[in-house]
Amino acid sequence: MTNTMQFDVIASGQRGLDLLIASDIARKIMEGKFNAGDVLPSEVELCNRFGVSRTALREALKLLSSKGLLESRPKIGTRVRERSHWNILDVQLLEWMKGIEATEDMYHQFLDFRRVIEPHATRLAAVNASKEQRIELSRIYREMCDVSAAPFDAERWLDVDTAFHRLIFFSSGNCFYMPFGNVLATVFKWFISYSSKEGGTCMDDHRKIYEAIMMGDADAAQQASLGLMQSSKHRL
User: Fold this and answer.
1) Domain covering 103-233, topology
2) 99-127: per-residue pLDDT in tens?
3) pTM for this predicted structure
4) Where in the chain is the domain with CATH 1.10.10.10?
């Protein structure tokens, strides 16, 4: 079933051949052109299709295996793994997902995930945010107000809303929460773009979150964040 699959020919003079190959294969997997259990063509065939050396190809396959997308078995070959094995929070994997349409189920799963971690990160931000972070949060919140008051600009809202939530994670003071500010930025943009498609901004909830953080009220910050996570507020 993989014999008719088209691969992008990659010029051998390009830098980072392994990354280019890995990106092409990863996107085909994430787009569903390869399904769990499918076996990739042989190394020789893939090298010919990509126009690259075995060394570059093997590095690419090794990279994809480290992210949980592939597994190699003797006498079977390199096979696509179930989504449950993917390292879905890997920054590079999220970058490769850009432009790939997410499913409704994925939006629900992401919202469920946010409900678990973001309210507590918001609680910590109310306690631990530095003076500089509170100043930056005020600037971002004012921009959110401007965007919501003017004729709705979806792209501008996408950027400012993402910045607002990213800063919350950065302000938590918890080294395990901070990386989510960057790692989830890509998925935040998908989610916000989808949930705000019809101009919804939930400004009242964002105001409550902002005011609670600025006042240092941890309980109110956590409750306000939980309020924002209601499915009914996100076209779900």
Assistant:
1) Four Helix Bundle (Hemerythrin (Met), subunit A) (1.20.120)
2) 676 566 777 788 888 899 999 999 999 99
3) 0.72
4) 17-92
